[in-house]
Specification:
Rossmann fold, single chain, 2 domains, binds adenosine monophosphate, 480 residues, 13 strands, seven-stranded parallel sheet
Length: 480
């Protein structure tokens, strides 16, 4: 099928040509015709399949031909997404595809001033792309209303639930007018997502599954290195130095703290890199992403939440520096390479403490990940364990008390029962994607807090050095 065969306005066909698309991807081929007929859609698709155009093009088409006009403070199409990066990216797609039309778009997300967002919404917009918390804020402030909504898209539904947005989603859905077209996308379909989909979609939606849930993209070459934790950094550096074909490399770290350490070590080795995670400002994150996209830097180190918005063409290699606790996350991570029909490579590092995670991943993908050349491991120097200010740490650990122990509830670390589990077995503690309180799902709000200790007159907390060393050493796996 060619795009010209689809009943899309000339202005949209022109934009498709301008962005360089020739043939629709499978999800576009399957989704666009029924969406143009007004059906609801349940799409099971990973990022990288072309799903944004699959929903954006039919929405734009229908907005163009419906004869309706936008009203002040009203929205005609709403796309709800879990992170600001993703929201920016999807709005960008709507703008690209609608560049020869008069369709207006706006994007709202937390962590930044709401003043420009309010201004954009005042006259009404055709397409609003939003994260849930900020959208609810603006609705409560009566800056925007959903009463005239014609199209509702919930994208990355599984991530939304993982991040604790379920209550916000329910609040938004309760405000939608009863007559509307609904599009629901998720990379995986566990039971709670199926239930949510049934609450949002009209009966008998079109169901399109592009890549079977939880199956990695076949074009990705996967490699595994079994390596001690303290030597992972050295292995990453050695691989990057020995393989000039690793041109655009995305490295996943489980924690923000770990991401910073990886960047520090790579920079010392003269490898251009940057980190993106929830502790970095929006500007710094956009800057790092921009430099990575333009290949000013070779390596981008990311945590899972920050990486949700990464849409970078031609990522050559994805490294799982730490294996994720939730096996589906591995699939999401490696799906960042091999996009738009291209090939790619995924390299995973697994230390002894991560054998359970490896087992879960291999069970999920129903494949044993082939091991890489062991020769490279022979001459690796060990990375010294690090204390505060990057000093090597020599003191042997004592058993951590309080929070760390409370988290594992006395069960052995590394066993699936040993970690605090949330719904669906997902870890309760996750990195937050945004800094504004409006975007922080409630279940996560207190989890970053540490026991408060009074400060001394000098402003320092007594024993804060020692405590920092302690936390650096014993920080629970999912903490950044
Ligand atoms: P998505 O899954 O929507 O995030 O899209 C992944 C990537 O595929 C983006 O870089 C899109 O620009 C690109 N893309 C989407 N549709 C097509 C198409 N029909 N032909 C070529 N590239 C596409």
């Amino acid at each position: 099928m060619k795009f010209e065969e689809l009943p899309l306005e000339t202005s949209l066909q022109r934009a498709i040509k301008a962005v360089g698309y020739e043939t629709p991807t499978p999800i576009q081929e399957k989704a666009i015709p029924p969406l143009l007929e007004g059906h609801d859609l349940l799409g099971i698709a990973q990022t990288g399949t072309g799903k944004t155009a699959a929903f954006a093009l039919p929405i734009l088409q229908q907005l163009l031909v419906s004869g309706k006009v936008r009203e002040p403070k009203c929205v005609r199409a709403l796309v709800l997404l879990p992170t600001r990066e993703l929201a920016i990216q999807v709005e960008d797609c709507f703008q690209k595809y609608g560049q020869y039309t008069s369709i207006s778009t706006a994007c709202v997300f937390g962590g930044v001033s709401d003043v420009p967002q309010k201004k954009a919404l005042l006259r009404g917009v055709d397409v609003l792309v939003a994260t849930p918390g900020r959208l609810l804020d603006l609705i409560n402030q009566k800056v925007v209303s959903l009463r005239k909504l014609e199209f509702f898209v919930l994208d990355e539904a599984d991530r939304m639930l993982d991040m604790g947005f379920i209550h916000d989603i329910r609040k938004v859905v309760a405000m939608l007018p009863p007559v509307r077209q609904n599009l629901f996308f998720s990379a995986t379909m566990p039971a709670d997502i199926t239930k949510l989909a049934a609450q949002i979609l009209r009966p008998h939606p079109i169901r399109i599954e592009v890549t079977p849930a939880s199956t990695p993209i076949e074009r990705i070459t996967q490699t595994l290195y079994r390596i001690e934790k303290k030597r992972k950094g050295a292995l990453l550096r050695a691989l990057l130095m020995q393989n000039p074909d690793m041109t655009k490399v995305l490295v996943f770290s489980r924690t923000k703290h770990g991401a910073n350490h990886i960047v520090e070590a790579l920079e010392k080795a003269g490898i251009t890199c940057a980190a993106i995670h929830g502790n970095k400002s929006q500007t710094r994150r956009q800057e790092a992403l921009g430099n990575f996209k333009c290949e000013i830097i070779r390596v981008l180190v990311a945590t899972d939440i920050a990486a949700r918005g990464i849409d970078v063409d031609d990522v050559s290699h994805v490294f799982n520096f730490d294996l994720p606790e939730v096996p589906e996350t591995y699939v999401h991570r490696i799906g960042r390479t091999a996009r738009a029909g291209k090939g790619g490579s995924a390299v995973a590092f697994c230390c002894d403490e991560e054998l359970d995670e490896l087992k879960a991943i291999e069970r999920l993908i129903r494949t044993r990940i082939p091991e890489g050349d062991p020769a490279i491991l022979a001459n690796l120097p060990a990375d010294a364990p690090r204390g505060p200010q990057g000093r090597p740490q020599s003191r042997p650990p004592s058993r951590p008390q309080g929070r760390a122990q409370g988290r594992s509830q006395g069960r052995p670390q590394g066993s699936p029962q040993g970690r605090a589990q949330g719904r669906n077995g997902a870890p309760e503690r996750r990195e937050r994607s945004v800094s504004s309180s409006s975007e922080q799902p409630q279940q996560q709000q207190n989890s970053e807090q540490r026991p408060a200790t009074p400060k001394t007159a000098s402003g320092e907390r007594p024993g804060s050095r020692a405590r920092k060393r302690f936390w650096d050493k014993f920080r629970p796996k999912s903490e950044g």
